[in-house]
Design goal:
Helix content is about 10%, strand content about 60%. It is mainly β.
Length: about 300
């Protein structure tokens, strides 16, 4: 069932990207960046929500929340060389009268690649990326035992492969030679073997195959989308079990200053066993699970 789900995700993503490419004229959409110039593109903003109740018979709680985000790309072309970078930062908090302040969103990601091409469509590429978070994470309502923090975990993929970049809308990267690095730089979390490392270890390396899709384009007037999906499978006994990291952000511009955003994240890592603490503070471990997050917000946004 798990492999069928992954196959459907891959098929849907590939079909959508192919359809997008067919709707654009190839000659007009080839990467025509001028040499030795930086090209910056993306979106940043601040979303917020607020609930206020007074003598509300149905019950409820006063609440206020917000999240700050930045998502974009920075590219430079020099002759047959292409230097491409992507970045995504997001952090959000929510406060209620009964539960206090809790973290809702925490994301720190960037990737960098250097490619060489003779036709400006296929690029021989070296790529590296990094993913972690800013602050400690908790399995609320427990605020005593943290389950994650900066660099615990942190992930990095370093790979050599071939990228298909026919236009400015999307790219597909394939690497048969990739290394996935997992860091758990915390005594407590490494001691319990969190995020797939052996108990007491702070680092794990896996060799495998890596596949990445990224797209950024308008969907209709005042509506645009940015999505990126990474797939990795290790060359060991778990070959065929695919780690997935898929992010999507849809931005809907209301006017010059206001916008609404929908962002989702889907993750699956065969090495990550879900850990939690019971009411007595005892640690329990479950098997790997599909992780999903959705955030809908209205607030200020700036496209660049």
């Amino acid at each position: 069932m798990k492999r069928l789900l992954i196959a459907l995700i891959l098929a849907a993503s590939t079909s959508a990207l192919y359809a997008q490419a067919q709707t654009e004229d190839a000659d007009e959409n080839k990467d025509k960046m001028e040499n030795n110039k930086w090209y910056l593109k993306g979106i940043s903003g601040l979303n917020f929500s607020q609930t206020s109740l007074s003598n509300w018979a149905a019950g409820g709680d006063n609440a206020f929340g917000g999240n700050l985000y930045l998502n974009g790309s920075l590219n430079r072309k020099s002759g047959n060389w292409l230097f491409a970078n992507t970045f995504a930062f997001e952090y959000g908090l929510n406060n209620t009268a009964s539960a206090g302040t809790q973290k809702t969103v925490d994301r720190l990601e960037f990737s960098s690649q250097l490619g060489y091409s003779t036709d400006h469509i296929w690029y021989y590429t070296v790529m590296g990326d990094f993913r972690s978070q800013f602050a400690k994470g908790f399995n609320y309502p427990d605020k005593t035992n943290y389950i994650s923090k900066f660099m615990a975990p942190a992930y990095s993929n370093i790979s050599v492969g071939l990228e298909y970049r026919p236009n400015k809308i999307y790219s597909v990267y394939m690497s048969p030679i990739a290394t996935k690095l997992t860091f758990v730089e915390d005594d407590f979390l490494s001691g319990i073997g969190a995020f797939g490392v052996d108990p007491g270890d702070r680092f794990m390396a896996e060799m495998g195959a890596f596949f990445k899709i990224r797209a950024q384009r308008p969907l209709m007037e005042n509506v645009s989308a940015i999505t990126a999906a990474d797939f990795f499978t290790a060359y060991d006994s778990s070959f065929g079990n695919i780690d997935i990291n898929w992010d999507l952000m849809i931005n809907m511009k209301i006017n010059k200053y206001l916008s609404a955003t929908i962002s989702t994240s889907l993750k699956y890592d065969d090495d990550v066993k879900i850990k939690s603490f019971d009411e007595q503070g005892q640690l329990s471990t479950r098997g790997p699970r599909v992780q999903f997050k959705e955030v809908i917000g209205v607030g200020l946004a700036y496209n660049f």
